[in-house]
């Protein structure tokens, strides 16, 4: 089965199963995916964009410190 948040394959016997009041079952590969999806209600695309911008900012900071 796949993670409901990041779509990574989950090995049997691992991960988190979350059951909503409506009866919908969602599986997560890690506590991180569970927290971001259920507790913080962040979409995977938003997190990916935030990571990219953080990586660009750190790369620019490293380049400016070298110069």
What do these coordinates show?
This protein has 67 residues and is an alpha+beta fold. The longest helix has 23 residues, at 44-66. It has one domain. The mean pLDDT is 84. It has helices at 31-39, 44-66, and strands at residues 16-19, 25-28. It has a two-stranded antiparallel ribbon. Strand 1 and strand 2 form a beta hairpin.
Main β-sheet description: 2 strands, antiparallel
Order of helices and strands: EEHH
Overall average residue pLDDT = 84
Strand line-up across the major sheet:
1-2
Which range does the strand content fall in?
Answer: 5-15%
Number of strands: 2
Whole-number radius of gyration? 16 Å
Can you give me a brief rundown of this structure?
The chain has helices at residues 31-39, 44-66, and strands at 16-19, 25-28.
List the helices and strands and how they pair.
Layout: E1 16-19, E2 25-28, H1 31-39, H2 44-66
Antiparallel strand pairs: 1-2
Supply the key terms.
single chain, 67 residues, alpha+beta, two-stranded antiparallel sheet, 2 strands, elongated
């Amino acid at each position: 089965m796949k993670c409901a948040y990041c779509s990574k394959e989950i090995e049997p016997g691992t991960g988190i199963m979350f059951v909503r009041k409506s009866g919908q079952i969602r599986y997560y590969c890690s506590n991180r995916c569970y927290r971001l999806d259920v507790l913080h209600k962040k979409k995977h695309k938003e997190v990916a964009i935030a990571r990219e911008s953080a990586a660009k900012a750190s790369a620019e900071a490293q380049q400016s410190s070298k110069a």
